[in-house]
Amino acid sequence: MTTSITIRKRTFDVSDPCSVAENLKLVRLQIVAGGQAEVIRFGDDEVRYSRANLEALEREIERYEGACAASRGNGRRRRFAKRIRFI
């Protein structure tokens, strides 16, 4: 399995989630601005993002931002333990 992605003729390493998140944000900005459909290649696989897939792109950005925050050690907790207090 390859660890590099090509987006708009820029190749970067998937093992750096911060870099992936930043590049996906650039793609989102182009789509929102009315740009053409974006072609992203994951090794031999190819994915096309357009206005119709903006939700999927948003989920991927969120996933990579979470991985970036976790790799830097400042991730937000999404689940909390329940507490019971007797008065």
Short description:
This is GpW protein. InterPro entries: GpW_sf. With 87 residues, this protein is of the alpha+beta class.
Considering the chains and any ligands shown, give keywords for the structure.
single chain, 40% helix, four-stranded antiparallel sheet, alpha+beta, 87 residues, GpW protein, GpW_sf
Structure explained in plain terms:
The model has no long low-confidence stretch (mean pLDDT 78). The chain has one domain (4-72). It is an alpha+beta fold and 87 residues long. Strand 1 and strand 2 (10-13) form a beta hairpin. Helix content is 40%, strand content 21%. Keywords: Coiled coil. InterPro entries: GpW_sf.
* Domains, number: 1
Mean pLDDT: 78
| Total of helices | 2
Structural class: alpha+beta
Spatial order of strands in the largest sheet: 2-1-3-4
| Rg, Å, rounded | 17 Å
Q: What portion of residues belong to β-strands?
A: 15-25%
Number of strands: 4
Q: Could you list the spans in which at least 5 consecutive residues all have pLDDT below 50?
A: none
- Looking at the structure, what is the overall shape? elongated
Largest sheet: 4 strands, antiparallel
Q: What is the helix content?
A: 40-55%
Task: List the secondary-structure elements in sequence, H or E.
Answer: EEHEEH
**What is the terminal separation in angstroms?**
57 Å
